[in-house]
């Protein structure tokens, strides 16, 4: 029996019933993107960034959900796990719906990352991840034409569960202090 009360569905309902024209996937992407670019985990700053997508002032339940989402992401990024839980529709949703949400997630991630990555010096690995995300954000067109849409979707999801961690590790973890130049 499909679980209609997935966290995704519950959050989507919360957003739409409060008049926010945004998917949980895009918000989760936005949150991860900004965290991976080193924006930190200040709740007010996150709510301010999210406000642009929400288009109107979030009510307390929405604010609490957003802060809870951030706590979850913070735990994942700073914890020992090496994969993220993506906030996407469950497997019972149509592949196209999941692909659309995946694209929204990537768009959110790129937007969040872009807002906070000004002046960052990105490694070639990091640039490659961002290029991949741009490509994946167009994924629904590719999946529709593919016999193996399910497999492709799973592969992309697996990639997205680890790719942001590479960016986070490179950009957001505090760098080791530079050794002070010795005075001669």
Automatic annotation (TrEMBL):
This is UPF0149 protein LK03_05210. One of its GO terms (cellular component) is cytosol. The lineage of its organism: Bacteria, Pseudomonadati, Pseudomonadota, Gammaproteobacteria, Pseudomonadales. Belongs to the UPF0149 family. Gene3D superfamilies: YgfB uncharacterised protein family UPF0149, PF03695. Signal peptide: none annotated. InterPro entries: YgfB-like (IPR011978), YgfB-like_sf (IPR036255). It comes from Pseudomonas cremoricolorata.
